[in-house]
Automatic annotation (TrEMBL):
It catalyses: 6-carboxy-5,6,7,8-tetrahydropterin + H(+) = 7-carboxy-7-carbaguanine + NH4(+). Catalyzes the complex heterocyclic radical-mediated conversion of 6-carboxy-5,6,7,8-tetrahydropterin (CPH4) to 7-carboxy-7-deazaguanine (CDG), a step common to the biosynthetic pathways of all 7-deazapurine-containing compounds. This is 7-carboxy-7-deazaguanine synthase. It is an enzyme of class 4 (lyase).
Length: 210
């Protein structure tokens, strides 16, 4: 049970439930292959059945950590910082991103878009989920739309989401890892027939890195 003082700091975004932080190579989407420092924030109620970090869902399992401490760690590594989850927009990202900007970091977010934007972002990767659709604000500001393909119906969902996102967003189809053998050939064929899309792969898993 958090004290009232800590709970207040979490609600303000001064402290965040930090699951993990690590320096690695971005494995997915537009920035694949580039170095980045990842900040994984706990807490998510979107509930994708194929989520590969279900341990992030319960925010209570992850210690509230002051954003100054998080930024101090991030500043030792890459110029680019990726905030992910869980669903990071569950929390107010203003304090974290303001401090990261003061430390001259480029800040990316990976989000389902289920909650309104908070914070300052250089790159927004939107990955919508059927269980809790994005709010319009995130569709309007996303730089990248990354659709996870778990079955054939997900191509229909991907097109529905592409209609909602802004015209400048770069469109990606990515096979869900457990279905990669089945879905990757279908994605390749789909992109060749619909070249507005690009293929994204979880290359970090092939490289056996975080």
């Amino acid at each position: 049970m958090l004290s009232k003082e800590i709970q207040s700091e979490v609600e303000k975004g001064i402290m965040l439930p930090l699951m993990e932080e690590f320096y690695t190579i971005q494995g997915e989407g537009y920035h694949t292959g580039t170095a980045a420092y990842f900040i994984r924030v706990g807490g998510c109620d979107v509930g994708c059945h194929w989520c590969d970090v279900k341990e992030s869902w319960n925010a209570d399992l992850h210690p509230p950590t002051h954003v100054d401490e998080i930024v101090a760690h991030a500043s030792l590594f890459s110029e680019t910082v990726v905030v992910t989850g869980g669903e990071p927009l569950t929390w107010d990202m203003t304090a974290l991103t303001t401090r990261l900007k003061a430390a001259h970091r480029k800040i990316h977010i990976e989000t389902s878009g289920a909650y309104p934007l908070s914070g300052i972002w250089d790159w927004i990767c939107l990955s919508p989920k059927k269980t809790k659709l994005p709010v319009q604000q995130v569709y309007d500001h996303a730089h990248e739309l990354k659709m996870i393909i778990h079955n054939r119906h997900d191509f229909i969902f991907a097109e529905e989401q592409a209609e909602k996102v802004n015209d400048q967003a770069i469109l990606f189809l990515q096979p869900e890892w457990s279905k990669k053998e089945e879905m990757t050939p279908l994605i390749v064929d789909y992109v060749m027939k619909n070249p507005k899309w690009r293929v994204s792969l979880q290359t970090h898993k092939y490289l056996n890195i975080p």
